[in-house]
Amino acid sequence: MRRQRTTLQDIADRVGVTKMTVSRYLNNPNNVAKNTQKKIAEVIDELGFIPNRVPAMLSKASSKAIGVLISSFSNMVFADLINGIKSVAKKSGYSVLIMHTGYSAESEEEQINALLSYQVDAIILTEEIHSEISVKRLKLAKIPIVEVMGYVENPINMTVGVDTFNTAYAVTRGLIEAGRKNIAYFGVRLDYRTLQRQRGYEKAMHEAGLKGLSLEIQEHSNFSLGSSLMMKTYEKNPNLDAVFCTNDDVAVGALFACLKLKLSIPKDISIVGYNGLNIGTVTEPKLCSISTPRFNMGALATRMIIEKLTAKFTGMQHIKVPVQITEGNSLTKHEYNCIKECLEKYAS
Hints:
Layout: H1 8-15, H2 19-27, H3 34-47, H4 54-58, E1 65-70, H5 77-91, E2 95-100, H6 105-117, E3 122-125, H7 132-141, E4 145-150, E5 158-162, H8 164-177, E6 183-188, H9 192-207, E7 213-217, H10 223-236, E8 242-245, H11 248-260, E9 270-275, E10 288-291, H12 294-309, E11 318-320, E12 324-325, H13 333-346
Parallel strand pairs: 1-2, 1-3, 3-4, 4-5, 5-11, 6-7, 6-8, 8-9, 9-10
Antiparallel strand pairs: 10-12
Helix pairs in contact: 1-2, 1-3, 5-12, 6-7, 8-9, 8-13, 10-11
């Protein structure tokens, strides 16, 4: 026999408050007194109560849910972003529904349809390229939409992200100004941001009159792939003196390959990663990487959404966030300073 669900009235009777008070607590805990918050929370845990969102969704009331579409569950960069989103959403009484697109515009279209069918109050997107029908549906939904990770020049609604193209341009230009001439770019997966980094790299090389060496592969990134790219590239280009990698997985793999090749880092060759992941802090030598503020992007995007939903939004809708280069030993001090200056000049 199916067990009867715990109701708001059950909780109210146990705590000694009205059903409306419990409802206010579930909508936003800060709507009730601190002492009452504690009592309600304890009874909810005791009774194992799970709020039923269906009635709110079927009516046109707020679902108190924010949909998030991420490109990959295996890519660690999205963990920081999600933590930033949840840190703000939870404080405001919002739940977060996360769906996966696999870097596919077609899959994104399907997941957008699903989120809209759940009547989420807002959607956060982590890709910059969308199908025509996805854009149309998102605009017709008339809910806050924030595109994050990469800065979007003409967003659907709002954007919080890094200027990927100019960041890559600045890194490459910094290496060139520091004296490096034979610089390679390693790109994997070939998603939009990877290709934007490649274009920024190529622009800097072209302006300096240097021959570019871009190696792209559609496979998912990992350490062994970075090592393989480095070994093959150095075999054909023994004058290689710097490598700019699309992410830290590839950079760490390239670093390991250089050690196998008995190359001194950064004397013989310099390596720059991208994303500033923790793995780069324990390599030897320590990896220099472009650190992107993913937690802050997630938190800021969610704050913008909630302020817009509550008619309190007064800030900018298009926010370009700065990046930093992490300190390490895969660059000379001079190269590090040149890249830092170029980032401030071209990518801030």
